[in-house]
Amino acid sequence: MSKAASPRLASVDALRGLAVAAMLLVNNPGDWSHVYAPLEHASWHGCTPTDLIFPFFLFIVGVSLALSLGPRVEAGLPPAPLARGVLERALRIFVLGLVLHLLAWWLMNKPEFRLLGVLQRIGLCFALTGGVLLYCRARTQWLLLLALLGMHGALLLGGGTLDKAGSLAARVDSAVLGRFAYEWNGQSAFDPEGIVSTLGALCTCLLGLRAGEMLRRGRLMQLSLLGIAGLVLGYALTPWLPFNKQLWTSSFVLWTGGWACLTLALAHHLIDKRGWPALGRSFGVNAIAAYAGAWMCTVLLEGLGLMTPLYAWAFGGIQQGWGPEQASLAFALAFVAVWGGTVRLLDRRGVYIKV
């Protein structure tokens, strides 16, 4: 293997895949009125298991960049061509997010087109974190991460209240996004993947970048200590900055990042070192394609009016016999199983759809 080769760790693919599978699970209940509490996001402040999913994915984006680009930087490859590749991929991811939102706006008769979203946030964080890796040394990366965490927290605390209507995030989204935000009432807007909260999401990706460097160098003790420090510091900040995914507060970055570091260390030990099965790997090697495909499937079913009759036909018996929550969960699990079988088939045939 050359010094510029990209190491591929099954544990990273598995965690990425489990995050995508969890996204499909929580985004596709059969009945939104009867969802088990752990499978819902916190209404505002707080952190449920579901709130961990997107931060884990963005954390793995940073880890993957460290594993793929880190060796090339150390090998002395010029940064400009690498930066061009990062930006081109980030743009493709961003544009794919726009296309998916356009499809939803068209088929589901949504009143307004949403500009930002999950894939758009991934694309932005991918581009910025890749640039930091290529042009900043390790110490500068740490300093930048700490500075952004502090700045984001100061902006939220100094920019207004931490409720949705009075937050700085809402005012910026209203001024910049307006009717193109996720929520728009004709006067004010708010987007959970909006402009201000993207600063916190970038911190999560940068934390993943540093964790990926520790993983690449086999420093599992440092990685575990980083995870513990994140949990302690994140919890310590909650009296001033509560956990909040929609604002992506600094405490939320540290808390979710702490769990992600510990999970990554454990997965690497069990899968890469001890040979445990890499559950979720098939999702992980076709992550963006699986997410986009599942999105289009849901939009088509909803837009063509097939979702409700399909749910009643396939899961009505469970709803009557066991209850509406069980039927909703069964639909979500079946949806994940269908896409799990799809990506498993693609993996067995060596088909990997890269965006």
Automatic annotation (TrEMBL):
* InterPro entries the UniProt entry points to: HGSNAT_cat (IPR012429)
Q: Which domain of life is it from?
A: Bacteria
Entry annotated with the keyword Cytoplasm: no
A Pfam family assignment: HGSNAT_cat
Which keywords does this Swiss-Prot/TrEMBL entry list? Answer: Acyltransferase, Membrane, Transferase, Transmembrane, Transmembrane helix
Q: Which residues cross the membrane?
A: 52-69, 90-108, 114-135, 142-162, 194-211, 223-241, 247-271, 283-307, 327-346
The parts of the chain that form a coiled coil are none
Q: Which protein, by its recorded name, is this?
A: Putative acyltransferase
